[in-house]
Amino acid sequence: VMEQFRTLWAGRRPESPQSAAADDAGPSTAAANRKPAAADPLAEPLTDKEERIVELIAQGKSNKQIAATVFLAEGTVKNYVSRIMDKLHAHSRTELAVRAIERRG
């Protein structure tokens, strides 16, 4: 997961085992099996504050460090992180960061 995150952070698209197998099968099959690069249409847009918090999560900051950076209480940051995870349908902080980067395109 971290390698995929680093790949996305560098602006490249990670290759999944499914897309690698599809590429081996030929161009028409590969094109049919690939998901569009567009952002998840079901995910809600993030506010500027939420975007900033995601950026700090992607940098590996803890809730306490984020709170100090954006001048909020740690509990408020926890609420923000929970809401952002709901919006992006993420189940972990790493998944949250990866999905946020994917949304940027």
Task: Describe the protein's architecture and organization.
- This protein is an all-alpha fold.
- The protein has 2 domains: 35 residues, no CATH class; 65 residues, Winged helix-like DNA-binding domain superfamily/Winged helix DNA-binding domain (Arc Repressor Mutant, subunit A, Orthogonal Bundle), CATH 1.10.10.10.
- Helix content is 67%, strand content 0%.
- It has 7 helices and no strands.
- Helix 1 runs parallel beside helix 7 and helix 4 packs across helix 7.
- The protein is globular and about 40 Å long.
- The relative contact order is 0.16.
In short:
The chain is mainly α and 105 residues long.
Topology:
Elements: H1 2-9, H2 17-25, H3 27-33, H4 48-58, H5 63-70, H6 74-88, H7 93-104
